[in-house]
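All the exercises in this workshop are built on plain-text protein records. A record pairs a protein's sequence with a compact description of its fold. The structure tokens are whole numbers drawn from a learned vocabulary of backbone shapes. Once this layout is familiar, the rest of the handout is easier to follow. An example says more than a description, so a record of this kind follows.
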Amino acid sequence: MRLRSRHWLEQWEPLPDVGAPDPVGDREAFRARCGAWERQRAFDSAYGFGIFLRRGEFIGEVSLGTVQRGPFQSAFVGYWVDEAHAGNGFVPEAVVLTLRYAFEELGLHRVEAVIVPRNDRSRRVAAKLGLREEGIAARLLQIQGVWEDHVRYAITREEWEARREDYERTFLGRRRVTAVERAR
């Protein structure tokens, strides 16, 4: 799926480190990537999940990264989906499940998403979910070798609690995705 959707996905991703093996095509690099997710989970620094259809088909990922504890209690949410499944509402559903995990299981207070301004599809996900737009972070992240501005979106625990029932009714009532499962 990553090979088939490579052109669709990589335009929004950082360039890999020079000489780093590609986990898409290198089995050992893929194993190492999975191991890195497990280590990050063990250290409470990041959580990666797969998005699966009910019939078990893997169609994307959603993650909580850069988990900060102490007075911050925050993380960043990121997501991607197979081009063949884009526009079908799977990502908002998966993000709602991930937000529920972040606020109710991990006890976080704030979750942010940062999105390249020209990535209209990802920005639509943030808009559908009613994430608060907080402005532009100049040259925040390297995307395909260029330091790009990103629009910052956020939601706090208080906002989650106020909207939880609406999120569940709107995005989880039909549950077309089995669950957000740990990436392996």
